[in-house]
Each structure stands twice: as structure tokens, then as C-alpha cells.
Write a structure and sequence with these properties.
The complex is a heterodimer. Chain A is α/β, with parallel strands linked by helices. Chain A has seven helices and ten strands. A six-stranded mixed sheet of chain A has the order 6-7-8-3-9-10, with helices on both faces. In chain A, helix 3 crosses helix 4 and helix 5 packs parallel to helix 6. Chain A is globular, with a radius of gyration of 18 Å. In chain B, helix 2 packs across helix 10 and helix 7 packs across helix 8. The chains are: A alpha/beta, B alpha+beta. Chains A and B meet through helix 1, helix 2 and helix 3 of A and helix 1, helix 9 and helix 12 of B. Bound molecules: adenosine-5'-triphosphate and magnesium ion.
């Protein structure tokens, strides 16, 4: 089995025009593996979100390549990239972006509905995922009635409902208090991560470091180091 | 229904205040447009009522005439000339005139008097009551049973009245296809009696009604009449002439057009603006959908569906409201001149589609522009 879920090679991204033109990410190469929870950490503005977007098919790089499941992602047509995102990648956005006018269950069902699953089936499957995140009894409520941590769990349920191989989370704990944040990440680690799945988390919350299998550090758009096999080490301590 | 459209529908309908504002905008626009155009159709149909009610095939008139009730009398030689045109089966004079009637109660009422050719009674109406022979009886008049009938205090056979100081008696009631525009009741009598009872100009032929031997003769007859300096129009041509007159030569057509345009613009701005706000407020959600993997055409189908759904409901409500208004108005004013034609419905429908189209175009542009990356960055 191929261990790398994502392979990035010399990724590069520029923003702005003329004088203001800046290099947000430069010559970034790394791989994210199945069965591991990889953190991307670094100071604000170091290019973490930019890098995450390029490897998940949301932002086209100006240079370099991304290999996802053996395919050169940015050589695909935009519709193929959309399909790849839909089928292989789950997203948890920092601000959740749940639909306030849909019920919690309908929110979770969205990736399934986009995959053309029949409405009632999709809602049934959504309930299963709400159960996984422990919110089955909130299925009929609009998300705004839920607490921040609960909304984050709904967002996670939505991200995994389509059974993606790769799950990306940008600052999942940023708008949660420390305890709730830890619980969410712990939950993801124990319930969502498995051998066939790769989870990438962008964070600068060091309180959740203990759950990382690998930590990749960024500074000024460059990857300055990757630390692996932390969990093994962590277990011993 | 595909699930994604169901999602689109819920996003729209569950946003109750905006959905209501959208519906009000479109309903209002459709209501006003349908109302304006129905009133106009009603007026046009009424304006030609005499032409419909007197079922002649060809009408001969002075070219300056543009309305059946305000005719320009023609000299007698036109009638003889018309009779001698090849292809004319018969040609008869028709008299149109106004008179004052003094009713039993003592009240005065203006009427239109139609004088039918004594010999043939060509152009006579179908009767509801009475015998057409009785038109030759002394002082005999038929009364048109149209919307104005009650203004003559709903007379029966035998009811007497005074007309310009002559005695008149009702000998029957006539059916009409359509009521007139000017709210004046109509009496039928013979040409000779009409001319005697009503003070007239030197000429007494308002129109000449012509029956051709066959329809193929019509162009030739029209050509010959034209040579006399007069105009021969088929029924449809005459109706069109009258409609054109009201549409283009009076303020009515222009005003209706303006009001319709204003209704359209008001409706378009309300709905377009509201829909745009709706899209803007949901922009990050559409962006999130895009990031999750919704293709551009899926988002477009959602927006088109939302816009056309609102438009169709608004259209239904608007048409329903306009029809209800017309029905209610008829209860109070029986001869309220408004009719909802298929053309009006079709026109309003096209306008609504344009409103929906413009609104969704703006929405689609906005949604296709959003970059999932910007959503991702928050
Ligand atoms: N759309 C854009 N236009 C211009 N500059 C941009 C844009 N997106 C990102 N940048 C710049 O690129 C750099 C990297 O941004 P990025 O959002 O990836 O940082 P980050 O590490 O995720 O920061 P944070 O921890 O604050 O989220 C920053 O200097 C940022 O200002
Ligand atoms: Mg970031």
C-alpha cells in the first residue's frame, strides 16, 4: 500500500501585484501519510492556510505539483478537481460555514446530496454521522441553536459524511475554549483517524500538540522541519 | 426533485422575511401589469362593441372615422354607388345617433340609437325577447340588454318612454356580444324612424353595411369604394382601426404602457435587489459548497431554481390578485371594463421571466466569482 496520501513537490504561491507582490509559500515539499494526524504549525502569515489550500485542490499553485492518490491534482480539469474534493477530501472550515436555514442533519447530508444520494437516504446516513459526533438528538435543530463546540462537531460530521480519505481542518480549535478544543481533537484522533485516512490540521494551538503524529513547522512561507513518530514517543512518556 | 434543489428551496423559503419581500415584489409587479393591461384590453374590446354587435361583413365610412359611435354621415350617392359595385350582394344604410330619453320616473338618460335599414333590417341583433317584425310597429324600439340596461330602469316589453318629445315603446330586448365603452344604453329601431325622431344633419347615412356575394369579392369592393373617396373595412379591419386609434392617438395607450413599464421596473428593482441581498448573505455558504465539491453548474441550477420558483409563485399570486380585484370590481360596477386576455397573461409571464433572469444573472455572476480559498481563509 502507498503510504503517502498527499505528496507536495516544490509548491510555490505568489500574492499581489507589482510592489506588493509577495511569496506566500515557496518550494514546499512534503508528504502526508495515511493513518497519521499531521499538524501544520507556524506563526501567523507563515503560509499555512495557503499551503493547505493548494494541497486540497482549492487554490492553484504558481509552481510545483501535488500528487493525490497517484494523480497530479493541478493537471486535472476544474470539474475533475471538484469531483476529487467531493469524493476524497473532507473540509472543516475555521468558521464552520454551516447553513443556518437548514437543520443540523441537512447540513451534514450536504456532501451526500452533492454526490446525488437520494434525499431520505442521505438524511439517514447523516444521522449516523451525527451519532458518531454525539449530536444525534440535535439533528432537527438549526446549527445556530448549538454551542460553538457542537457546531464544530457538526462541521466535522459533515466533513466525514462523504467518507473522505483525507480530512483537512484549518484552526479547528481557534474559536473554542481550551478544554472544548482539546476534546474535539481528541475525538477526531480516536474516532475519525484510521489506517486508511489522513488528517491534516493547521493550528497554532500548542495545547493540542499531544495528539499529533507528525508536526510540520512553517516560517515565512517555507517548511523549516518535520517531526515524525511523535505519538510513539508520546506513549512512552 | 434532485436533493440539491431541495436544499436550494429550503435556503430560500426558510429565510422567511426575504422570501416574503421577493414574493411581494414580484406579485406587486405582476398585479399592476396585469391590471393595467386588462383594463386596456377591456377598453379596447368595449370601444369596438358596436362593430361586434352589428354583425356586418363590410363597413363603409368616411376615412376620417375612427370610432363606430362618432361617425361622419355620407351623402346618398355613396349608397347607390356601393350597390352597383360588382360582387355586392346588398348594401344598406345604418344610422348611429345620440338622443335623450325621458324615463317613466321622469329622469333623463342619454342613449345611442341605431337605425337599421327599413327594408332588410341588416345588422339586426339577436333577440332575447320580442319579435323582430314588431320593429315596424308604431314608436317601436328594441333595447340592448347590455351592462347599461339598468340605466333605462330595466324596461320590459310595453314600457313607454319619451325620446326627444316623441313617444317610444319597448317591443323587445336585444342580445349583445359586448357592452360599449361610454356607459350609454343602446336602442334599435328602423332607419326611417331614427331619422325622424332625432334631429339630423343633411346626410343620414352613418355607415353603409355591405354584404359581399363571396369573400373573394371583398378586395374588389374595397378598391371601388376607395375610388369614391371612402373607405370599406372588414369587421376585423374596423376593429383594428378603432383599437389603433385608442392605442396610439389618445393618451390611453401611452399611459398604460408607461404604467406597465413602471410596474415592471418597480417589481424588478424590489425583487432583483432582494434576491441580490439574499445571494450576498449566503455567499459564504455557496463558497463552502464550492469548496466541498459543488461544480459551477450545480450552483447555477440552485440559483436559477430559486429565482424561477419565486417568480412563478409571484406570478400566480399576482394574476390571482388581479383577477380577484376585477371580480370584486364587477360586483360594484357591473360593466367594469377589464378583461384578462391570454396575451396579457403571456406578456406578464415573459416580464416575470425577465425579472427572474436578471436577478439570477446577478446572483450567478457573484457566486461564480467567489473563491473557495477566500472562504477557507475566513
Ligand atoms: N488572497 C490574498 N491576497 C494577498 N495576500 C494573501 C492572500 N492570501 C494570503 N495572503 C498572504 O500570504 C501570506 C500567507 O497567508 P496564510 O493565510 O496562508 O497564512 P497563515 O499561516 O494561514 O496565517 P494565520 O495563522 O494567520 O491563518 C500572508 O502574508 C498573507 O497576507
Ligand atoms: Mg490561516
Amino acid at each position: 500500500m502507498e503510504h503517502a496520501a498527499i505528496k507536495a513537490n516544490g509548491l510555490e504561491k505568489w500574492f499581489g501585484e507589482g510592489e506588493a507582490r509577495t511569496l506566500a509559500v515557496q518550494s514546499a515539499s512534503f508528504e502526508a501519510r495515511y493513518g497519521e494526524m499531521l499538524y501544520i504549525v507556524g506563526p501567523s502569515g507563515s503560509g499555512k492556510t495557503t499551503l493547505l489550500s493548494m494541497i486540497s485542490g482549492i487554490l492553484k499553485p504558481d509552481g510545483g505539483s501535488v500528487i493525490v492518490e497517484g494523480k497530479d491534482l493541478w493537471m486535472l480539469e476544474s470539474d475533475e478537481i471538484a469531483d476529487l474534493r467531493l469524493n476524497k477530501i473532507g473540509f472543516v472550515f475555521q468558521d464552520y460555514h454551516l447553513f443556518p436555514r437548514l437543520t443540523t442533519a441537512e447540513n451534514v447530508a450536504i456532501p451526500l446530496i452533492l454526490k446525488k444520494m437520494e434525499w431520505n437516504t442521505a438524511l439517514k446516513v447523516a444521522l449516523e454521522y451525527l451519532e458518531i459526533v454525539g449530536l444525534k438528538d440535535r439533528a432537527q435543530l438549526p446549527p445556530v441553536k448549538l454551542s460553538g463546540g457542537e457546531q464544530q462537531r457538526v462541521a466535522i460530521a459533515r466533513a466525514i459524511a462523504g467518507q473522505p480519505d483525507i480530512l483537512v481542518l484549518d484552526e479547528p480549535t481557534a474559536s473554542l475554549d481550551g478544554d472544548t478544543g482539546r476534546k474535539i481533537v481528541e475525538f477526531v484522533k480516536t474516532n475519525i483517524l484510521n489506517d486508511k485516512r489522513c488528517i491534516i490540521i493547521v493550528t497554532h494551538d500548542s495545547r493540542i500538540d499531544e495528539y499529533a503524529d507528525a508536526i510540520m513547522k512553517m516560517e515565512d512561507g517555507k517548511i523549516i522541519g518535520v517531526e515524525r513518530n511523535r505519538a510513539l514517543k508520546g506513549v512512552g512518556e | 426533485m434532485p436533493g440539491i434543489l431541495k436544499i436550494a428551496l429550503k435556503l430560500l423559503v426558510n429565510d422567511k422575511s426575504k422570501f416574503a419581500a421577493l414574493l411581494i415584489g414580484i406579485t406587486f409587479a405582476v398585479f399592476l401589469m396585469v391590471m393595467m393591461m386588462s383594463m386596456f384590453s377591456g377598453i379596447l374590446a368595449r370601444s369596438s362593441s358596436s362593430v361586434y354587435n352589428i354583425g356586418a361583413k363590410i363597413w363603409v365610412m368616411d376615412p376620417a372615422v375612427n370610432n363606430a359611435t362618432s361617425s361622419i354621415p355620407m351623402p346618398d350617392y355613396v349608397l347607390s354607388a356601393a350597390r352597383s359595385i360588382k360582387g355586392v350582394k346588398y348594401a344598406v344604410p345604418l344610422y348611429f345617433g345620440g338622443a335623450q330619453v325621458k324615463l317613466k320616473s321622469g329622469a333623463y338618460q342619454a342613449v345611442t340609437v341605431v337605425g337599421l335599414d327599413d327594408a332588410t333590417l341588416y345588422g339586426r341583433p339577436d333577440l332575447i325577447e320580442g319579435n323582430i317584425e314588431n320593429i315596424y310597429a308604431e314608436n317601436a324600439f328594441f333595447v340592448a340588454k347590455d351592462a347599461e340596461f339598468s340605466k333605462l330602469e330595466s324596461p320590459k316589453i310595453g314600457t313607454e318612454f319619451e325620446i326627444n318629445d316623441f313617444r317610444g315603446v319597448v317591443v323587445g330586448l336585444a342580445m349583445v356580444a359586448s357592452s360599449g365603452l361610454f356607459g350609454v344604453p343602446t336602442l334599435y329601431t328602423t332607419h326611417s324612424r331614427a331619422v325622424t325622431y332625432i334631429p339630423s344633419t343633411r346626410f343620414t347615412t352613418s355607415f353603409i353595411l355591405v354584404e359581399p356575394k363571396s369573400d373573394a369579392d371583398i378586395p374588389y369592393i374595397q378598391q371601388q369604394i376607395k375610388k369614391l373617396g371612402y373607405q370599406a373595412l372588414t369587421r376585423n379591419e374596423f376593429v383594428k382601426k378603432i383599437s389603433d386609434f385608442y392605442t396610439y392617438k389618445t393618451g390611453i395607450g401611452m399611459n398604460i404602457l408607461l404604467m406597465t413599464a413602471i410596474s415592471f421596473i418597480v417589481g424588478l428593482s424590489i425583487s432583483g435587489q432582494t434576491f441580490y441581498t439574499f445571494i450576498l448573505e449566503n455567499l459564504d455558504k455557496f463558497g463552502a459548497l464550492k469548496a466541498i465539491g459543488a461544480k459551477g453548474r450545480v450552483l447555477i441550477s440552485m440559483i436559477l431554481f430559486q429565482a424561477s420558483f419565486t417568480a412563478l409563485i409571484g406570478y400566480g399570486l399576482g394574476v390571482g390578485l388581479a383577477s380577484t380585484m376585477i371580480i370584486l370590481a364587477r360586483i360594484r360596477i357591473p360593466d367594469y371594463a377589464a378583461q384578462v386576455t391570454y396575451m396579457t397573461l403571456g406578456f406578464a409571464f415573459v416580464m416575470v421571466l425577465i425579472i427572474a433572469g436578471v436577478s439570477s444573472y446577478i446572483g450567478v455572476r457573484k457566486v461564480l466569482q467567489i473563491q473557495p480559498f477566500d472562504i477557507f481563509r475566513g
